[in-house]
From TrEMBL:
Residues 2-232 form the ABC transporter domain. The keyword Transcription does not apply. The keyword Translocase applies. One of its GO terms (molecular function) is ATP binding. One of its GO terms (biological process) is amino acid transport. This is D-methionine transport system ATP-binding protein. Keywords: Amino-acid transport, ATP-binding, Cell membrane, Membrane, Nucleotide-binding, Translocase, Transport. It comes from Thermosyntropha lipolytica DSM 11003. It comes from the Bacteria.
Amino acid sequence: MIEIKNLTKIYTTPHQQVLALDNVSLTVNKGEIFGIIGLSGAGKSTLIRCINMLEKPTSGTIIVDGEDMTLLSKDELRLARQKIGMIFQHFNLLSSRTVFDNVMFPLEIAKVPRKEAKKRVAELLELVGLKDKARAYPSQLSGGQKQRVGIARALANDPKILLSDEATSALDPETTRSILKLLKDINRQLNITILLITHDMNVIKQICDRVAVIDKARIVEIGDVLTIFSNP
Ligand code: ADP
Ligand code: ADP
């Protein structure tokens, strides 16, 4: 579903060049939950942002669902991005919009007819367990509820892939467990491939099938979670 080959990313600032990804290759299979773990500054965020081309790779290829993202025109990229939902550590909700209208937002951008979009939003809020919060504003929600809105919004355009950037890092352990359970349900029920980045080993152990360890811009280990984190 995602095939990254020889991906290198160098950030050029006025003062220096930063090698954020050094010849990274990995494949995420359809239907799996794949975790990328590493310390702060290792390159995780850069890697996930390259997949939907929020960051432009310096070199290498990124194939998503059969399409090389690095070769697409602006219009093609807009369509390709609809296959990829994304959730964030700090949720990135619009504070002036209700829960309902936050989830509606990507459907408005995709110009989905209003009636169909409203039906879809209602279904998504049901899926994430927030039907009764539709008219609330983000400031009236707990962290876990905000992330549920983020998840519903990410699923709005019926993506094949969900990218998660430290989605549980701002949450307490119990809320983390409930969000991870929701992600696992979404993976199983909707057959959505999930790629997540985290610095938290427990996240990997709780839901990932496979894991890559990234250190100083390079992948240093990759394999089944049970093999890599088995206690000898
Ligand atoms: P992680 O997500 O693992 O914390 P990042 O991908 O954010 O790592 O960062 C990898 C490296 O790239 C770090 O050294 C970071 O300082 C640098 N970096 C990230 N974004 C930028 C940027 N926009 N400009 C310059 N350097 C950056
Ligand atoms: P309009 O189509 O003129 O924007 P709507 O009928 O969509 O008006 O509804 C107005 C507001 O009510 C919406 O912006 C949304 O916040 C809220 N809303 C609409 N449908 C629902 C629903 N099923 N559940 C909760 N809130 C809703």
